[in-house]
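Title: Request for sanity check on Acetylornithine aminotransferase prediction

Description:
We are preparing a figure and want to confirm that the structure record we downloaded matches what your pipeline produces today. Could someone re-run it with the sequence below and paste the raw structure tokens into this thread? We only need the token string, no images.
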Amino acid sequence: MNAKLDAGLTTRNVTRDTFDEVLVPTYAPAAMVPVRASGLDLWDQAGKHYLDFTSGIAVTSLGHCNPALADALTQQIHKVWHLGNGYTNEQVLRLALALTEATFADRAFFCNSGAEANEAALKLARKYAHAKFGESKSRIVSCLSSFHGRTLFTVSVGGQPKYTEGFEPLPPQLSHIPYNDIEAARAAITEDVCAVIVEPIQGEGGVIPGDPEYLKALREFCDKTGALLIFDEVQSGVGRTGELFAYMGKGVTPDVLTSAKALGNGYPIGAMLTTNEIAHHFGVGTHGTTYGGNPLAATVALNVIETINQPAFLARVKEASARIFANLDKLTADFPQLFGKVRGSGLLIGLPLAEGFKGRAKDFTKACEALGLMLLIAGPDVVRLAPALIVSDEQIARADQIMREAIDAMLNDAPAK
């Protein structure tokens, strides 16, 4: 046997240093290595406990190792795992029915990630426009500071140059405009535009809610020019805002909607939802995926939708949100030198740092992590909170307590003026 394989592969000792030895360095993960989790509780290799207010970047919205989801997945594992796309399966059909019955959409396409869902949406928009108006209608408009995925196409559509540097030449016919700027949108969305893609709440760009009037203006401009309006709800969807999807609280209906992250609660699945009129332009063979809509992923997602899309559940998300916002409002009032005005929607919340502490969001999350609270950042200047939607009042209070304790570390290590 190869000497490298002598040790038991499933039991060999690994540490954070192993990451630096064998993984492509596309991430810089924390020093601790999580090994066990339940709900919002997580433990690392040393047995240290953490309160997780990240939910895997707004993914595990029903908590880690949710028992109902684990049971459903286990049952499906003993039935069928995978089928080639020459076949369908009962679970994906049930999931498609659940999503189309709950939304504006008539049709669903399933894939494995948010990037793939957005890739499908953008390809469909071009296909639709070329068939209906001709190939000259191909330009795509998106927003600066947006994030739509990491494929070459989606990362180019996203409005953050730091993610495209070194990957040139980029796909053509892409335009970027300021978020929440109606006049910039009016000028950009002309007859050659096939699609406008927008996050109803910018996530990676700083947790910035879209103004309802801005989103309504995008709808108006798209209707006028024949462009499709695509809502990227990869982060904001599946209950995160207290609505099943954020568009439902904005008074604007898109032509295409993309979803992923929380849809599978950590099991990889993405979805693109659209109407009959648009969907028929994706005929047999025009697009596809090997694993998309497989029975395992579809089973988990179906149970996620069934759990979250209940009035009482969504009402509790809004109640928990109000409690966290109240705590953060008091925190910013108590420490105005450190924090700016809290923003966001539901349980997708951004806490900007004040002028003197800009660039130090990661410092604050590290201080919280040392005290047992896991938080996110949304760029260098914004602390992001995205707890599981099942977060309790006690956990909300504990997070507030830890954040206040972490402030001492920030203030005692304040940068020189």
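Thanks, this matches our download. Residues 80-308 form a domain with the Aspartate Aminotransferase; domain 2 fold (CATH 3.40.640.10).
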